[in-house]
Amino acid sequence: MPKADRALTLAMKFQNPKSFIGNRIHPGTSHQCAYLRGKDVGPARLAIYERDKGLCKYCGRFADWDDGEMHHLEGGLGLQRCSCAENLAWTCGPCHRKHHVQVQWTRKGEAA
To answer: pLDDT tens per residue, the chain (112 residues)?
Structure first.
């Protein structure tokens, strides 16, 4: 888990207490990574939608606000899964699902 820069985190006045600015410098930039949760994701999602003009990064199809999804280019659970603009892209639902593992549930005893 990344460590928070307390002064910058307080200055951002996040709505969710789990959102924070980390000490990690985003690769290729000079700014520290942001890790957003809850209500703090909304403004980032809007910024990515506007930046990408609603076009899916992968197929180029328009995905409006209700159907499109914000995608972390570097995902996982580690430091790399920040919510910096450089790590986010707008995608359509089908393309977003292709980039994530889908758990296939079966009833107990049916698994081969």
So the answer is: 678 999 999 999 999 999 999 999 998 999 999 999 999 999 999 999 999 999 999 999 999 999 999 999 987 777 788 999 999 999 999 999 888 876 666 666 655 5
Domains along the chain?
A: 6-97 (3.40.1800)
In sequence order, the β-bridge partners of residue 25 are 32
Tokens, residue 70 = 């914000």
CA distances from 32 to 6, 9, 39, 54, 64 (A): 12, 11, 20, 26, 30
Of 19, 13, 12, the C-alpha closest to 83 is 19
Neighbouring C-beta atoms of residue 5, cutoff 10 Å? 17
**Residue 78 carries which DSSP code?**
S
